Fold these 2 entries.
Entry 1:
Amino acid sequence: MAIGAGPEIERLMALLSKLPGLGPRSARRAALALLKRREQLLIPLTNAMQDAADKVESCRICGALSTQNPCATCADPARDKTMICVVEEDSALWAMERVGAFSGRYHVLGGLLSALDGVRPEDLRIDGLVERVRAGHITEVIMALPATVEGQTTAHYVADRLRPLGNGVQITYLARGVPVGGELDWLDDGTISHAFKQRR
Amino acid sequence: MAIGAGPEIERLMALLSKLPGLGPRSARRAALALLKRREQLLIPLTNAMQDAADKVESCRICGALSTQNPCATCADPARDKTMICVVEEDSALWAMERVGAFSGRYHVLGGLLSALDGVRPEDLRIDGLVERVRAGHITEVIMALPATVEGQTTAHYVADRLRPLGNGVQITYLARGVPVGGELDWLDDGTISHAFKQRR
């Protein structure tokens, strides 16, 4: 893409196009928006990214991205130490926190097991979770993993690793069913079948 | 949006969501992608943005964003000095350069006249264009402005400013018609009517 604007601008576009949700065309629009709004957007965003690059790391206890280590959630004495919610990624943790329904702590696996993508148990933060549960004081581990084949395979594997510890920890799963506002006509058969079997 | 990840990460998301094409959800995904790919994406993109903030400015002749001043196009002796292509934004200039059909120089207005948005002639780089044409050696000014009401109003206004200079400069407009691959059934009536009237 030779557009005569100089290698710096083309490099900026090329890197922006690697962000999820941005293709080559939207990356050009984003680059133009940044260059046109130098003071209001380009410089503040550059500083925010530099800040993030300097300060954000994975919490040594739960693996969540944070500017503190341990992260604010792990360090908060008001949060329930006996419950761990296991999530795939920080985005799931952020979603749970937005909802505000959970007052325990988290464990971010950092991905899901996948034979296809070559993700093995040792590539995820599973040993760390086993250690946390082995150390005691945990009464419930909630598997908040995606309702996909990889998500459920990972949940089963993790549960199999936790069960032999034999310290009475309960392993629970997010309920499956009709989402709020969901119309039956638009739902897939698997969801309807689940919701029917687990009716109450 | 309190997600417990610290103010730096929330600030990063808030700024990313100001980019065109990114809403709050895709900004979260983009932030996570950046933080997970620190070495491959976050740091290179931060450096590219810092580079752009430091080096990119508007060309003093044509107004194009460039790391050189005058820009590479204005400074290139191989490009036709007698033709100026007038565009709204750098994105249009980049599109023209990708096509490679034009070997003259450009003039970036920096926007379009709009009574609604309060954009007046003095807010655009129109005086600079008049000066370039007044200085002579220009035989053709091509209005490559959008085929919208604002685009055409701006083109008429600019043409009215250039015509009194009376140095025989020709003012031309991009052809209107059926786009390549366009099926009549999918085109708006205005385009079909234009294409019919200007049939050849």
Entry 2:
Amino acid sequence: MSIEAKFKKLGTDNAPGQEVRQSAAGLEALMRGAPLEGRPVDFSHGDVDAHEPTPGAFDLFSAGVMSGGVQAYTEYRGDLGIRDLLAPRLAAFTGAPVDARDGLIITPGTQGALFLAVAATVARGDKVAIVQPDYFANRKLVEFFEGEMVPVQLDYVSADETRAGLDLTGLEDAFKAGARVFLFSNPNNPAGVVYSAEEIGQIAALAARYGATVIADQLYSRLRYAGASYTHLRAEAAVDAENVVTIMGPSKTESLSGYRLGVAFGSRAIIARMEKLQAIVSLRAAGYSQAVLRGWFDEAPGWMEDRIARHQAIRDELLRVLRGCEGVFARTPQAGSYLFPRLPKLAVTPAEFVKILRLQAGVVVTPGTEFSPHTADSVRLNFSQDHEAAVAAAQRIVALVERYRA
Amino acid sequence: MSIEAKFKKLGTDNAPGQEVRQSAAGLEALMRGAPLEGRPVDFSHGDVDAHEPTPGAFDLFSAGVMSGGVQAYTEYRGDLGIRDLLAPRLAAFTGAPVDARDGLIITPGTQGALFLAVAATVARGDKVAIVQPDYFANRKLVEFFEGEMVPVQLDYVSADETRAGLDLTGLEDAFKAGARVFLFSNPNNPAGVVYSAEEIGQIAALAARYGATVIADQLYSRLRYAGASYTHLRAEAAVDAENVVTIMGPSKTESLSGYRLGVAFGSRAIIARMEKLQAIVSLRAAGYSQAVLRGWFDEAPGWMEDRIARHQAIRDELLRVLRGCEGVFARTPQAGSYLFPRLPKLAVTPAEFVKILRLQAGVVVTPGTEFSPHTADSVRLNFSQDHEAAVAAAQRIVALVERYRA
């Protein structure tokens, strides 16, 4: 594949944060009515001013800077002292052992962990099972390494509330067709649904049967709403621990994205490869930033409960606003801060509507096509926003749905 | 290529900072005499405690944190306000225009810039001209993307002091053989030599003649010693600006490695590809860290001169110590903080001697084989260290050379 062809597939025009590089040419002719007033809301990512970084994070960073060279130049997989702190916390959270020395790597964000994990498991031509819809980078990573994506559907729309809706037959078919890597996010990005204990059990059993490696992106697994139960794949009896890599990070729930931190843990062989690659990708997660992880999973009592309660309140009010619009379907997110409403048929294309939302309502959302070719009629909202501003923005979305209804 | 084969080539056992993961098994039998006392010195990278980060860097970081979400979530290519500040400074330094909007990307370290630049220019099977010796990651990057390395020799040993010693005929042969990318560091890592105006002019002319893209790693180009003149390839009249990417960063001279910052600038088309890839590699250089770049190329008057003078003093004393040992050859570095002495024939292998240096003398150096298959008899020292400790460590190196002399 030529370098031009390879990069042509890597479009980022609709990626969160990149809207500033979009052109609005040709939209004027389609627009109806006047702009809607209101505080702009960028639902493409969380608002860390509304939900601030974990208290103490900056002090830990400062202490890292003060400690000087030892914190600036860590092993590529991250400072051992910090890995020693994190491993038991991650083990307690996920219910299975974590080897601080050989089974854990600190990365530049969870994106860094995902990149390294896919690079360390997918060679050219390898088949990789990918959920539709799921985080858009999953597909792009597989394509970048010239793997072949085998889609597995997640029917979060029809599934009852007790399960995410994974097509388990589809997953087995993917394995039967030769896929030896399965990559998925739990809670699902964009739908916010959590895989049930039964679904995780089945994934574990299928992975074991076919000898597949599973990369579980659990970035949002700490922010769980009332009534949600969560099952960690890596703690399943059926799994071979060497065939699972779990990815997490403090960028979302903890609002620490500005420090670019993530972790991957599990399989020693895969972590070892990931570190070898990290050495030529970016050497290490920023040394001083790594120090911030000392406070991760060690937040003050009540801090997480409060953060969850605030997000649950925003979620519930957004759901009321969106469901008040005829033809909108929105499943209740069980964890994380993504809402993925399906919109009714409009007189403009979904891509046009997303741009119109930005230009006429000051509302940035991520188009559904980023997550699956089958979800063009949906948009993703990261509702980790100022409560009032988010509700007002959702009302503007509804107003424009009415205005552009087909 | 299988994933195992691909990663087997990516060895990092001798990479700087990774010595903690080495085994010393089997060395005991080879060792002669008692350990040498002295403060341990890790010459594999600079000592940012001895040469501290640029004053004000931490304050800029703090201000970045205070500014919140806008600094945490920048464009993938980095904050535009910061790019607007940097572009004219980089243009003034290199003598050619820099397009802040489309021709500049902020990356996680210069390593991040190198990775993205190679990924954006080298497809499977592409031939890439690589200097021997040069920064070890260059070769590994080409191999990772399954390019084919075409070595071009740098005869820094025999060349007179007015030139680095590049085999220009060899470079043209590489282009004739089909290489369309040339990747090199200037000043050269590990030899510390600077390419002459004539060499840079010839590289520019050859690149233009063969339509080749040049990636110039100028990481150390600010730390120049008395008498060194420096020519920026990107400012050469012969070059097509769209075929050159220049890489720099504040990790070395400015001791800001703990923030993980680098930049690449030049070709708009290549920078655009690099950003697309950054979106799936690590999203962006840590947002808060980017703020530190506001102070880059804006240091207090005299700060750089002082930093250069201190390094020149260390360089000169290390050269005296090393040249006092019979059979050691060490060319005078013209810029940067790398010394690459060639050692006389020893009774142990070069790899063993490097381990012995660590175990018996508390001195970490990088083996010459990391930079070229032809420089196994050399070791690289990053002499950005505490002056006295570095001199004492060099004396221990000399003492062990005597002890193990063949």
